[in-house]
Amino acid sequence: MQNQQLESSIHVDLKRDDDYTAYLRLDKLLDAQQPLSEPPHHDEMLFIIQHQVTELWMKLIIHEIEAAIARIRKDDLPPAVKNLARVKHIQNQIYNQWTVLDTLTPSEYTQFRHVFGKASGFQSPQYRLLEFLLGNKNRSFLRVFEHQPDWHARLLVALEQPSLYEEFLRFLARTGHAVPAEVLDRDFSAQRDDHSGVVAVLKEIYEQPRSHWDDYEMCEALMDIANNFQFWRFHHMKTVERIIGHKQGTGGSSGVSFLKQALEIEIVPELIRVRTEIGTP
User: Fold this and answer.
1) How far apart, in whole angstroms, are the C-alpha atoms of residue 187 and residue 98?
2) From the CB of residue 270, how many other CB atoms can be counted at a distance below 10 Å?
3) Residue 18 has what pLDDT?
């Protein structure tokens, strides 16, 4: 077998502060996996890495969604659609990760679950920020983050500002669509019911896509993200059910029953309802 030769142009005179390890801060990143079980249980490493990687992907999703919101506010829709196209692919990565955690059996998990204490994914500030950015607002959830002032402040801003979907509705109003005033001028920290006036606006876009192509693309991009979010929630719930059954969650929730409630929440309600209306008089 022939060995691959080191090409003469490859840099070998590296310094510790300008190589790959330094740029990605790998020393810090790879030192962040610290099992608490004693002796360390083999499968705790899987559990830690699974959740840390998810947090990294969520950081990128938030980065892209905040950029999309900023662009929508500037009436620059096509680049915002590009941001959301990337989000869709990141969501696919997070979703597919569940198949790795699905290899963890109940017998293995019970051997280290006790080391978490009260820790729970429900307490992830990034997950809560993502929910707020997507429109699932609930002021009571802020109480979980009172011991983290910086995150609490950031979450409060996201709670009270328009979500991604609501920013799109504001854009539609600015560009001549008859979005009802009560949808635009309201307390954005509160949930609202779907509005027939918004459905009518979306119906026009869907029935005349060539006349409203950028709006049409954004509608479908939002629908992709909403669907992927629900797929992720469902697989999360089924993975929890598979591993712990109907035990109470470590964070104090009812576990699977609590996760099932989230499946009833639609973050783009009129985009669901309009599908029934398209093609009808």
Assistant:
1) 36
2) 23
3) 82
**DSSP-derived secondary structure for the chain:** -PPPPPPTTS-----TTSSHHHHTTHHHHHT-----SSSPPTTHHHHHHHHHHHHHHHHHHHHHHHHHHHHHHTT-HHHHHHHHHHHHHHHHHHHHHHHHHTT--HHHHTTTGGGGTT--GGG-HHHHHHHHHHT---GGGGGGGTT-HHHHHHHHHHHHS--HHHHHHHHHHHTT----HHHHSS-TTS-----HHHHHHHHHHHHSGGGGHHHHHHHHHHHHHHHHHHHHHHHHHHHHHHHHTTPPPTTSS-THHHHHHHTT--SSHHHHHHHHHTT--
Looking from the CA of 181 toward its CB, the CA atoms found within 13 Å total 0
CA neighbor of 256 nearest in space, from 270, 268, 242, 269: 242
pLDDT value at residue 16: 74
Give the pLDDT score at 126. 97
pLDDT at 87: 98
Nearest of 270, 266, 274, 169 to residue 215 by alpha carbon: 169
Could you tell me the two tokens for 249?
């969650």
Q: How far is CA 272 from its chain centroid?
A: 19
Structure tokens at 231: 């797929």
pLDDT of residue 17: 77
Intervals of the chain under pLDDT 70: none
Helix 269-277, helix 196-207: angle, nearest 10: 60
| Res 158: pLDDT | 98
Indicate the pTM of the whole model: 0.94
The pLDDT, as a whole number, for residue 11 is 83
